[in-house]
Amino acid sequence: MGLRERLRGFAARSPRPFVVSAADGTGDRLAVEAGLRARRWRPAVSPAETGVLVVCGHPGEALAEAIDVVWSAMPGPRARIRPDELDGIEPDGLESDGLESDGAPRGAASPSDDVGMADRADDRDGLRLDVLHVPLGPVLADWPAGLRLDLALQGDVVQSAEAVIVDAGGGSFWAGREAARRLDGAARFLRVAGWADAARRAAVLRDDVLDGRPVRDRFEALERTVRRSRLLRWMTRGVGNLAPDAVERHGVPAWCVGDVAGRLDGWLREIGAALDGGGTPGGHDRDEALVSVLPELVTGADLGQARLIVASLDPDLAAVTARA
């Protein structure tokens, strides 16, 4: 058997579904993540590396259109499934003809999936560089469901940004579950940072908290591991710094002040306090304000830093329409 055949066999035995969530799909997303862990399958970080798309919740029109664009660009054979259909994906099913496929060329993009032509503008050194206008989200791994950031980039540096809510609704899944919400945010943040093992541990703790299992000792072990990581501290220190006056200007909660490293530290403290019965972590999040402050925070950051900044705030757009 040649190398190509062995690689195809390995890929078929280990599907890597790409999971997309609507604003009201948090519960479904958590169930899918638990199912993937039970099967020892890793979620895909981009639709280009998978043939399985899992859609959680009920996307609104704008998000559904974005999902359709991603679906049209996925390689075939491919399957688009609901969370309750995960059991129907067999380890070797991706090599069969039974999965849905519309015969589109591998990697074909939708005609609406256009990237605009670049303009030119002065950068900080006085040079004339191309400015490319690109969206970040809404169909992105470990990304707030229903959020899109419209970026103007020079190189990989964000020159300006606009936050757009493309899907929201229903009320927050996390109402009264603040410790679990913060553990979920920590798991997504750690995956964005590239620390898969710590992210998995945080996700298991989140699910155990939701199920009423004791997690205090295991959380303390995870907290020590995260706090001792010099690499994570180096990646996040000084990134996405929010001045104290933003609390009044944007109405964001006080825990947002500081940089990404400080916000993660705050999450860990608040999770510990909640597990000890000391109240809810962070209080009222004001998710609309978290969205409104994002353009200011990501401007001047590179794309990798922008992902970390968004993950450090983790707005819940389902809560936005619940209050509206």
What does this structure look like?
This protein has 324 residues and is of the alpha/beta class. It has 3 domains: 3-95, Rossmann fold; 119-165, no CATH class; 178-323, no CATH class. Helix content is 42%, strand content 13%. It is built from 12 helices and 7 strands. It has helices at residues 3-13, 26-39, 61-73, 178-192, 196-210, 216-227, 230-236, 246-249, 260-275, 287-298, 303-313, 318-323, and strands at 18-21, 52-56, 79-81, 119-122, 128-136, 147-154, 157-165. Strands 4-5-6-7 form a 4-stranded antiparallel sheet. It has a 3-stranded parallel sheet with strand order 1-2-3, with helices on one face. Helix 10 packs antiparallel against helix 11 (303-313). The chain is globular and about 50 Å long.
Primary descriptors:
324 residues, Rossmann fold, 3 domains, three-stranded parallel sheet, 12 helices, 42% helix, globular
